[in-house]
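Quick check before the chapter quiz. The format below is the same one you will see on the exam, so make sure you can read both the input and the output lines.
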Amino acid sequence: MEKISVNSTLCDGCMNCESMCESVHTASRIKIIKHDSAYYSIVCQHCENAPCITICPTDAITEEGVATDKCIGCGLCVMVCPFGAMTFQASVAEKCDLCADREEGPACIKSCTKRAITIVDPAKIKAKNQEKYLSKLAGVYETDSKKGGIVHVLTSQARARLVLEE
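Here is the expected output.
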């Protein structure tokens, strides 16, 4: 499941995303909070085994969002959300649904002037990280042009191969 990600180094705390989300959904489903001179987002992480889905007594909460006609406003979902991303509006639970009803995609992304908000696919990030890790294990290391110079890092496995080849 895709997720909203906010790059805290790009976010300037303008709150355009919150305003746009609120105008689309009557209440903002994303919160930007300042912590130690940086801005971070509180937004639904679309958990794999979501506790809000599990605890909902009326099955109003799904991976896609909240069925407002089923929600009884008990607040159990708000209590168990590990990210504090569930909200209430008029005694009905709300969570980010990635603006599923909008053809143009999430309103918060479209409103971000700094382009700090993106949609990420954790499975793709995981695959990319695994590929980088395997490259390091194999003794291949991409140079970082920002740091200057050429660096070649030998992992313990690559060093072992060198010893065996000698």
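If your answer matched, good. The chain has two domains: 3-122, 124-165.
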